[in-house]
Amino acid sequence: MKAYIRGRVTAVIPDTGVEIEGQGVRLEGVWGLGREAFGPLRTLRGDLEAQVQVEEGSILAVQGTASHEALLSAKGSGAIGVILGYMPSETVLSLVGSNANLGITGDNDVPFPIVVMEGFHPVPMREEVFSQLMKYEGKKVSIRGVTHIRAGVIRPEVILHSTGEGEEVM
Prior knowledge:
Strand order of the largest sheet: 3-12-10-5-6-7-9-4
Number of helices: 3
Number of domains: 1
């Protein structure tokens, strides 16, 4: 059965869903777009350039940023989600339009989920965060871009799943 997180079903809630128990690391982003994705992680130091080739179904973690064109290229090459260090406001507006409510996201028409770890100014992803992501190169991760910055705050997230093979989690 497919689920957002990896784990063991511990309870079935009739007409609602299931409860899943698992181990891993949750990294909280500053802002994001889009819903959920689950796939193998690929990491990239620096910025995402317009031409990138990734394995179909991959989630791409970029230490820097990406332009609108580079994000569309990543989608075309098979990426199903992106984690960025930062995203300039011009790129945000080119993706969602100037009339979008940026305080409540999740239903935006974007190519895939995007999680921004540091914000909108040119600040690359912190080394300790990017290093943790690099440890999960090729492993399955989950991302969710949904952001609500008003009451009932919801932040975008990255879930690094433990494989249960004695690996150390952050």
